[in-house]
Amino acid sequence: MSWTNSRNAELKQRAAQVIPGGMYGHESTALLPADFPQFFRRAEGTRLWDADDNEYIDYMCAYGPNLLGYRQPEVDAAVRAQMQLGDTLTGPSEIMVTLAEDMVAMLSPADWAMFCKNGTDATSMATVIARAHTGKRKILVGKGVYHGAAPWCTPGPAGILSEDRGHIVYYRDQDPQSLAEAVAAHAGDIAAVFATPFRHETFRDQSEPDATFAREARRLCDAEGAVLVLDEVRAAFRLSRDGAWAALGVKPDLTSIGKVIGNGQPISALVGLEPLRKAASSVYVTGSFWFSAVPMAAAVATLKIIRESDYLERLQRTGRLLREGLAAQAAAHGFALRQTGPVQMPQILFEDDPEMRLGYFWAAAAVRRGVYLHPYHNMFINAALTETDVAQTLEATDAAFTALKAQDRAGLPLERPVVRDRLERAALLSA
To answer: Confidence class of residue 413 from pLDDT cuts 50, 70 and 90?
Structure first.
């Protein structure tokens, strides 16, 4: 492909004048190699086009929301039909009831459902419901685990007071002994234990769902009278058509769900078991756009496809093909990859690469060849990805390995300030 970035460079300069930092939040490219585009123009299926009209096979899926493919026809049709009726109204549409019924019918840890906009909304709602239910204060969370960008959980310290986290207690993520110790240390005042289905934080190897940890978390919460909250904002419906811990025989009391349920439309959810219904009814949580009908119509269409299609099996099949192909390529070029976690949410890091110079160079080389990979964040497979797309991806990554090998022999340049900043942020997440 012919690759240019002049339009992106111009937009970044303009943005720097009118947007603090030029861009903010998780979609900022400030810590990525310079070749990564900041601005995009359009998308369809598994393809993404940036502001310079460079085309990419996209393995970030908008950082997760794209489950079925950009502009999925049935979802888009549902969006257009609801737009003809109305979106943000004085009260909710009847589609809200249909969506809640669908979620309760599909998810074993759901006797009721509430809707909001972002993952942070759902996790924050879980904290207040847990406190209302128990009358207790402490919220236990895994150290370095991302639950959103509210003051109680954001990984960035700027503007955050110690009082904002005065009742947040940390344990080692996915470590049953550490969780047991934290519960013992704060017994009698624990409102909730937050967990994720598996380890999936940035800069780190992922894990798989762990039955031992899940069952111990459930046992400890039951013994303490605490609420078990499973944060499935990132993983929901990519691991299972039910809750991520359903196959382990563990039901959380509350489950936060985001990203995928509207296939890119802005909607998230909190679902819960019957004993939490009264507390959920007692808290005041709301937002001007939480009741908008168009995202709910998109979610109803998305959930229908989840129920009735082989989308999950396709995610797993193409994810395995990608993982196996990359492992073979890396070995052939003399590199070792660490590919961890479920294949439908790939995390790809290089062995013996503490400053991530190999990963940064390789990911940037893939981007210039039309494949959008990420050097330190877990990625996502969507159901529009085909075996042909994977084959084209592997052509690009093979060329990226060739370029990396040639540059590695010559001595890779290292952008120290960027790498140092990235490593300092990683240390912050682990603090």
So the answer is: low
Answer yes or no: are the C-beta atoms of 98 and 108 closer than 8 Å. Answer: no
> CB under 8 Å to 276, separation ≥6 — which residues?
129, 133, 227, 253, 254
**Domains (range + CATH), the chain:** 6-60+311-430 (3.90.1150.10), 73-308 (3.40.640.10)
Q: Is the pLDDT of residue 43 over 90?
A: yes
The span from the CA of 270 to the CA of 276, in Å, is 11
β-bridge partners, 58:
372
What whole-number distance in Å separates Cα of residue 164 and Cα of residue 155?
13
With CA atoms as reference, report the closest residue to 401 among 371, 363, 368.
363
pLDDT tens sequence across 15-33: 999 999 999 999 999 989 8
Burial of 264 per CB tally in 10 Å (0-12, 13-18, 19+): buried
The answer on pLDDT for 152 being more than 50 is yes
- Quick one: which of 378, 336, 346, 360 has its CA closest to 420? 360
pTM equals 0.94
